Here is the input.
Amino acid sequence: MGKRKWSLEARMVWWISLLLIFVISLLGGTYYVLMVDYIQEQVGKRALGIALTVAEMPEVRRAFDDEVPSQSIQPLVEKIRKQTEAEFIVVGNKKGIRYSHPVQERIGQYMIGGDNERALSRGESYVSKAIGSLGPSLRGKAPIRDDRGRVIGIVSVGILLSDIDQMSHTYFVRIATVIILVFAIAVIGAMYLAKQLKRSIFGLEPEKISELFQQRDTVIESVREGIIMIDGDGNLTLFNQAALGMLGFVDSKPAIGSPIQTILPNTRLLEVLHTGEAELDREMVINGREIVVNRLPIRNNGQVVGVVASFRLKSELDELNENLSQVKRYVEALRAQTHEYQNTLYTISGLIQLKSYQEAIELIHHESEVHQDHVLWVLEKIADPWLGAILIGFYNRARELKIDLIIERESSMGRIPPSISPSSLVSILGNLITNAFEAVQSLAERERKVKLFITDIGDSIWIEVEDSGAGIREEHLARIFDRGFSTKPSADGMRRGFGLAKVKQLADELGGAITIEQGDWGGAVFAVALPKQERERI
Here is the structure.
């Protein structure tokens, strides 16, 4: 026996319920965790507030000068503990010996928990968790100071964690009750929604709808009559293969969902849609052929929700004659289209060049195999499209400026790691290469050289740009990365000194470093190292 399939209604209820369980549980759990944290925070603040109040009481301070401080402190503190409903209020001296405790026998013993150091040594007030003689508790700690401000003791006010857990459990029960109630309402809503959807598709299962849809398409495509259908908004919903040929849509099929008037400007389908009256056996000529058209409104519950038009050729002879004429026109159209296609390609090429893609077009149509090899090498060695694009762009820019841009063949670069922004890496590389181009621009053509090496082998990304320019003079090294400082003269009032400053800024932000050396050509070598893994920075 085959495996039993769930109905659409059952599947909808199941998946909606599963989603609701996940979402409601996630929200409820998050709310509960936040509520527990809030309760603990408020209880901690309350305990700390009591501790601070007791620590500031003059009676408590004066009692530290008594021969037996506990005789004065214990009754006073116990009264406060009962009024505030704290689990314990313990007052101890600087050595941690108790002067008060809910259990009378433990007075005079050392305080337990090991969390008094901050209050006794540094004079801090704080909230802590520790295990004391009464069990795990949330404690508010406050130092007791004498008139000179010296720490002479400590007040510890505690609320047992078991009491906090009991409070949290009460809220948990309430939250769980609300979650169950919301889930029950949501499941009922899902069942209702599933029933309404099932009713709207006539009780059919998705598999049956798919099967009927395929059958319908097969039947429509098998008939020799052209069929066009529009919906209540006048948009195309069906256009079979026979209609494509009859209406002359040879090269492209009309897009489903397009307004019918954009495809057939003079169609009468919209009139039938508005009037709701059928038009039968109407003769008309389309593309030089006489056809017979039937236009019928599609109704649902008495409302016109669309129109279907079917049309056929008036006679087989007319069809044969028209087919021959159509073939001749098609051949002429293809011949004209071929010629026009070439012109269009040249036009597109020109438009692309006007859009700053001239170097790419020249690469495809005119450049040498060496240039093509460069692009293929970039595509093979540089996996990231950002870097590949800028390298090809700078290569073309270098050829335009008559600069010999050499990219070391040992270079390689995989995907940019998540810790480094692609725009930052492209900005660093772009500014370094631009700076190198400017450094060699004033040289003779044969002396204009720029070399680039980039790799991500190891734990860092390494970028090295060398030029054949004059290099960086020693007195300028200290300021070369200062914003607004430049060794190049300004042209047309253009401000300089921002490129290298930007490189230094980005390298610092990414936890990297940049160095300058003198290259083999006598110019400058800028090297940037960027760690692949994000480093912790303040």
Summary: Residues 316-348 have pLDDT under 50 and may be disordered. The CA atoms of residues 322 and 328 lie 10 Å apart.
